[in-house]
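Entry 12.
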Amino acid sequence: MIEAENKKEGWLSRTIRHPFTLSLYYFSIVGFAVVADRYSDLVSREAILFSAAAALILFVLVFSLTALSFRFVRAEEINDRVNDLKTFFAAQQMGWIVNDKYIRVMELGSPETWVFSRTLINDLDDTGEIFQSVKANLEENHKYTYFIPDTPTSYQAVSKYFKLHTFSKKQVQFYLIPEENFLFYTEIVAYNVHSESQSAIEWLPLTQESGNASQFYIKMDTSHSNYVVGIGEMYKQKYSPSSVGR
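Predicted 3D structure (tokens):
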């Protein structure tokens, strides 16, 4: 908890507590005290106060410039790290890693989408990008087919889906697959099914020891995308659409 709070500490607070800034405080006060004591008999009180005000203004100006310079240096370091990551991904040919913004674009442009999922979590989380895309697609009369394991939690998920989304009859179909025949351990979505731009993407959530969650989306190549759709075709031939939730 303490570590998380330290990470959120602002750049201004870090600058104020920087050793250089603290040293500047100390020597400025000591220097002014020495000067004021030495020349107190030669200079009027008004002049000393005026000098103190001028010194304060100069100090604030120097402090502000120092803080800005620290901030610019930090920004350059971050930009360098981002560029290094981009170079690394390009060198490793890791263009198959996509983000939720890419998923949303894929989703919105897909007239027929097949979802293989154990929980339907992305379609039920009304705070997520994917949920908003599904909602918009259903309003445009796009079709969805869901393949989920035949378990008690699946029935609950389907019931919640019907409460959260509005769609016409036969626009959305659910296939409940026996647990022993369900071949997926995470969520895979096939977009633009039965079209030239057919593509499948796998969702890989990662929860770290600190409790922070990361989302990774892996875009499959054409052969693997076709294989996933082939599994869906096999399910549709072996099983009938479920009437659960209706």
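Annotation: The first helix runs from residue 2 to 7. The longest strand covers residues 199-207.
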